[in-house]
Amino acid sequence: MRTVVITACVFAVTAIAIGSVTASTVFAKDQDTAKTGPPSAESVTARVDKLFAEWNRSDSPGCSLGVSRNGIPVYERGYGMANLELGVPITPASVFHVASISKQFTAMSILLLAQRGQLSLDDEARKYITEMPDYGSPLTIWHLLTHTSGLRDVFLLHEVAAPRDDVFDNDAIVKILAHQRGLNSAPGAEFQYNNGGYALLASMVKRVSGQSLRPFADANIFKPLGMTHTHFHDDPAILVPNRASGYSRDAGGMHVAVHPYLNHIVGNTGLFTTARDLLLWEQNFADVHVGAPALVAAMQTPAIPTGWSDTSSYGFGLEIDRYRGLRTIGHGGGDPGYRAYVARYPDQGLAFAVLCNLDDIDPATLTRRVADIYLADVFSTPSAGSATSTLPHVSLSAEQLASKAGLYRDLSNGIFGRFFVRDGKLMSAAGAGTEPSVGLTPVNENRFVLAGTTLVLEFVPAAAGRAQELHVTGVGPKPIVMQQVVATPFAPSSADLRAFAGEYTSRELEVTYTLEARDSGLVIHPPGRADILLQPIFRNAFHGDVVEVLEFSRDTHGIVTGFTVNASAVRGLRFDRVRP
User: Which of 291, 122, 261, 124 is nearest to 196 (CA)?
Assistant: First the structure.
């Protein structure tokens, strides 16, 4: 399946006594007139507070919540701690890093330049990012805005390249992408979420306007809308009053999150803001003060890739969706230590913002649960997840489940997915490995659903001359078709493995890998990076972390000549063998 999915600094504020002060409440309207649902023994705000109760403690990070109706705040509250070391609680004024929520502000910056006639969305990106190559098909600003550029994922490229001596920032992103001579797909042909494209847009703002994204957005978006606690954080030395530190949790407990790219990259990420400021921005879509109404409307219009019909859920930095029958427009964001989600129900005039400083919190689900309370009498369908739960789920035998297991390949782009049985359940994982994975629920012998989503997976048994197929619906106008890889099991001998050993160079990444043959398999020694152990999956194909699937090529004499990296976000990246 295709997956559309991510530092801390303490600040000194006067600590408040431990207790209920770990939450701060503003605009708490508990009167019946504030309720949109039927009368209840509990107030609206009390029911909302219960949703966040597990984090509303003096020893836990938490969230800041903001709710507005027609631009007027109706509830704002902080739950948990902005800084555990100093004992500082989260308040509605706490400033959070919101990761990919940044994209809509980068998009607006580009639209403002278009409004002034300084660029056109139909312009080729390389008109302004002149280092970019000619891919043979125009790659436009519109493609970057809508995640249909086909560009390889620059963060994975950075991870498989040799470590750089300079800072990994927007200029470094331009340099890496400018060296790529291949794309994952033709521009406009496919939606594939791409952070690098939005980093390119930030560089474009600087080159066209003469200002970097931080001062441009400040002067043209944030100040006009009164977003006084919002900025693009492109300088680690900048002081940020009321900043919430980010935290991660593992088996060892709570830790300050470390993000190597924070403070250096903007466009796709880098926005620091508050729930209160985000609600001001949300109202701009209904009562336009920044941007021409036509451009604001374009941001919220689904972008249709070439060859698709009218099914899409992404505009310019915004996701267009429906929840329980109501139209929603929003976006999420996630980086180490932070999770955030903002959503607007335009037909009801309600907006919600949930910003969290612990990266195992799910703010998207929390936002929907808050909406369930405020819009209880308006929703036309059951709550999220119940649609799939009402389907006639069945139990399948171990043999029936095992018949679906195997490695499958997307016929449109060559990307792999693995299905396997674990603890009596069919599991799915992207790539050729088994983690991370998700469970599937059977509807009948050959149809499965992914709970809480509209994804339906149907296995089509093999027929004469055709291997078993998997058809995935619910992600576009036509099914994704994957075919099971039917190949003789590949158990290479030591001599077989030695045939792959040698040095391989990528001209696009300017890096050379050494491949070593060991009894356990092949091992990649990337310069300056951790070794990658490769396991055989079929003849001339191996699987490993980061690179996902390596497929080796041979000449007419059977000599290995190179390999391609085939990951979901980086396809067909070529390495040529330069020394056996």
Answer: 261
